[in-house]
Amino acid sequence: MTQTDKVLYTGKTHTTGGRDGASRSSDGRLDVKLSSPGTSGAGTNPEQLFAAGWSACFEGAIGLAARKMKVAVPPDAAIDAEVDLCLVDGAYFLQARLNVSLPGLEHDVAQALVEAADQTCPYSKATRGNIDVVINLV
């Protein structure tokens, strides 16, 4: 494990019932019902939660890179994250795509921001080498 100088934040949740249960954060700000993907359940699923967390973090990392490069992030910047739950030979795994939209920026500037964000974003670091990831500039 990496040596830590300072813990900036710890997210805490309590989950019961697995994929068909519920999850609540310790501060009560997150309180969701969970449903297995592809079912008629009323809740979200871990893949959607992971996609939301990763895309939010990645967009934050783009903002950090933009400040360092002295570039303004377009107000309509967006990330469409897709996280697939896959099955091969009885083994489950994830794969993902981040489709990044930075309208109005020159392609090379937008690409530099995406590449810098990929090196900074904790989700990208955590998944690097562990799951197949494609990052598209759209």
Automatic annotation (TrEMBL):
Q: Name one Pfam family in it.
A: OsmC
Region Disordered: which residues?
A: 1-45
Query: InterPro entries of this UniProt entry?
Result: KH_dom-like_a/b, OHR, OsmC/Ohr_fam, OsmC/Ohrsf
The annotated regions of Polar residues compositional bias extend over 36-45
Q: Which SUPFAM superfamilies match?
A: OsmC-like (SSF82784)
NCBIfam families in the record: organ_hyd_perox (TIGR03561)
Spell out the PANTHER family in the cross-references. ORGANIC HYDROPEROXIDE RESISTANCE PROTEIN-LIKE
Q: Which family does it belong to?
A: Belongs to the OsmC/Ohr family.
Its recorded name reads Organic hydroperoxide resistance protein
